[in-house]
Amino acid sequence: MKHSYIFFTFVFLLHILNVLFPSDRLQYALGLLAFVMLLLSFRNASKLFKILGIAFTVVGLLFFLSTDLELMDIIPMLADNLSLLTLLAVLPWMNSAVTAGRFDKLMQTLLRGNVKHLGSLYQRSTTAMMSLTAFLNVSSATIAQDVLVDNLKPVKKKIANKFIMMTTLRGYSLALPWSPLEVLLAMSIFITGVNYGELLPWMIMITIFMYLIDSLWGRYYFGKIPYPEKNEAEAASKNIHIRSKILQLIIALVSFLALVILLGKLFDMEFIFVVTILVFPFAALWAVLIKRGKSFWTIGWNKWKNSVNNMHNFIVLFVTLAFFTGSLNESPALTMIQEPVLLVADYPILILIMIQLLFIFLSMFGVHPVATMGVLGGISPLLMDILSPLSLAIILVTASVSTIPVGTYGLVVTITSMSLKQSPYLITYYNLIYSFVFGTVGIIAAYWVI
């Protein structure tokens, strides 16, 4: 499967062409190609995603049998989620620009900064994680945890582990609600059709609120524990370099956000498509401007090729999810599923709470929040009759993101568990209250805009 990226890229380029010049024939061809991608990827997918894929296929078939659709109608619906897969395929280029510019080293420098106690380090670690996760995604958690494990060796192991479990996972989750490179945000916009510019202020407000609350708690809880001091002269000598790097990162982030919003409005294009076509040229130009063009191409090519070659889990999930959603929308079973929602239609706050609890509950059993969101996407028209599209978008983003620190079998929790040799259930336990507060804030914000 070393050359899978060639075939996958061909499919993604065809999808982009179909978005620019819509064609029923091309959509049908993309459905056939999506099916081939599913067959190629299933064998190499992890056990969890195989189970999810089989479950979506079996239930989707049951729904399909109750519809008036013909077998040939299945093919085009398999391509419905290619936009999300295409977005995932281009993200490594942005990650490569950050690596080429050595911004990942910035996190290491910040976490080795001169602070007096763990309370200050907690806030600094959360800030660093939140800032760089927007570009580095999961890599930021790995970098931060490696640095903190090394730095906190003089601290009692139990306290150090607890500190790392909290600050890295919470900081990671705070970058996801507003980052245009986050698939959970992209999928929420995809389902609801909400404009990114309309959703962004709410996501930023929620993020700032959660950041302040968690930072204050972190300073109080860990503030009495001293942190081994570093060489002050050495730290001071790096200040100018650090400030320059931080400024570059802020300019890049603000520029990217502004371009996404501007292009979406000017050309009336969907959020996911705008981000997809913008990532590569933006990353390449950024690398050239900071004089790291050669490194960008060297790092980027290998990262991108490796990433696309290993998209099996998401291909299995999104292709089978497209079939499940398409069949559900045409099935009488949709009415049965809608009945419990209709019973509480006069109490939208209950619907918001139910959505939040569904994400939390399923995440603890290994169900990826993307899969949960896909299920809710099947009844999104009904939900948007009760909630406004903006309200639904807010709750989908916050409910899915709030599961990240407590998703017992989630990727970041698993990485943390392996890094610290701790039970994933212990990580879930330490972050449960944080996730509950995050979800509650999301519910209040979503209820406010109904």
TrEMBL record:
Transmembrane segments: 5-21, 27-42, 49-67, 82-103, 172-193, 199-222, 246-265, 271-290, 311-329, 349-371, 392-415, 427-449
The keyword Transmembrane helix appears for this protein: yes
UniProtKB keywords: Membrane, Transmembrane, Transmembrane helix
Source domain of life: Bacteria
Record flagged with keyword Membrane: yes
Name of the protein in its database record: Uncharacterized protein
Organism: Gracilibacillus ureilyticus
